[in-house]
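Risk register update: the risk of archive-format incompatibility is retired. Evidence:
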Amino acid sequence: MVVGLAPAAHGGNRTGRIFTGDRSGDFLFASLYRTGFATQPQSLSRDDGLRLRGMYVGAVNRCCPPGNRPTPEERDTCLPYLVRELELLTGVRVVVALGAFAWDGCLRAASALGHVGRPRPRFGHRAEAPVGRYTLLGSFHPSQQNTFTGKLTSPMLDEVFLRARTLAGPAR
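Archived output:
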């Protein structure tokens, strides 16, 4: 499972599929394609033919927060949706958190399910932490702020997804 911050105003909010139709999604889906999780390298619309293989994409928040800065109240209001997704997705073994906000949201959701990592794992790119039945992997978010500056490169993101594939093991 991949977890982001929220649908982007001009991406997922507009298209109805998270990370679809924006530059962050372009970067993400290209990596998912290169690492075998997606059937094509681009996601332009909900009906563009893209299919994910052994991967689910979600978010901590359900709507685009002003200035990409959700409040604690927004996060807490939306958290039950992420918790429910994790409950329903019984095959999830690895969760890739895109950014520190998603990392924190994943830890909160896992905690709500009774999976608590002690000590509380710290976010970092390629951070890896066992959290109950999950392995949590951290990656810088594929935002333009990170990709245009080189803070996150294609090989760096591919490495995270290849590690996720290794940790998840063979599909059940």
